[in-house]
Design goal:
Blueprint: H1 2-20, H2 45-48, H3 57-60, E1 119-121, E2 124-128, E3 133-138, E4 144-149, E5 163-167, E6 170-174, E7 179-183, E8 190-195, E9 205-207, E10 210-214, E11 219-224, E12 230-235, E13 250-251, E14 256-257
Antiparallel strand pairs: 1-2, 2-3, 3-4, 5-6, 6-7, 7-8, 9-10, 10-11, 11-12, 13-14
Length: 262
Amino acid sequence: MTMKRNLLALTLAFSLPVFVSGCSSVGDMFDSDEKKPLEGDRISVLELAQSLEPEDPVLEENGLIAPAAWRNEFWPQAGGYPNHTMQHLDLGQGELAEVWSVDIGQGSTDELPLTAQPIIVDGRIFTLDTDSKLSAFQVSDGKKLWERNIAAKDEDDPVIAGGMAFSDGRLYVTNGFSELIAVNPEDGKFVWRKHIAAPSRAAPTVINGRIFITTLDNRLLALNAADGAVLWEHSGLSETAALVGGASPAANNDIVIPVFSS
């Protein structure tokens, strides 16, 4: 008798999956042909989104008031100026059109994106390519004035560079090899070269005789623009992730705002 029960149980165990597989779900065996919708009011998700409207009646009566447009002839640092605020720029009359084009060196590759922004000062454009080549060109016609290799000594492998900043007649460059270099913009000769705590993939910010740099390990460094001496540093949260490029700090007379990957 026990053997018959075991045989019956075994037969049911093999037959049940075959029976169930004929239905889209176990519940289909018991569901009726017509499904009743859930009771209650329907509310559109899109209708819940509210548009921004001024609550002040005075604002409703006035349109957007922008400051007067101004003609800017310089772009000395990443973001324009140390505070990254360019306000209302005047692009001049007529349509924008290409005047000239020149080769600045090695461009982006799969491993090394070109992240360094060009800067413009006193009729010259300064560029930094992915092969650590710093170059100066005339704004008027694109003529190359000079070029310098700013890679670290005894380093053959290229890295993602930081960027450039101009202040008080001097060019400051982070080369991506844990170095900050001060350069004479007239001929490209190095004024001084300093090792910093970690590589930087962001352009430095220079204001009031101080250089502010964010590093790959989430540190903000403040250095003396005269000789590159470290004045102080601030550490952000440690983070294993890193930015491919980097945003240079925004600075004003009494405050500096860095950007960390954490």
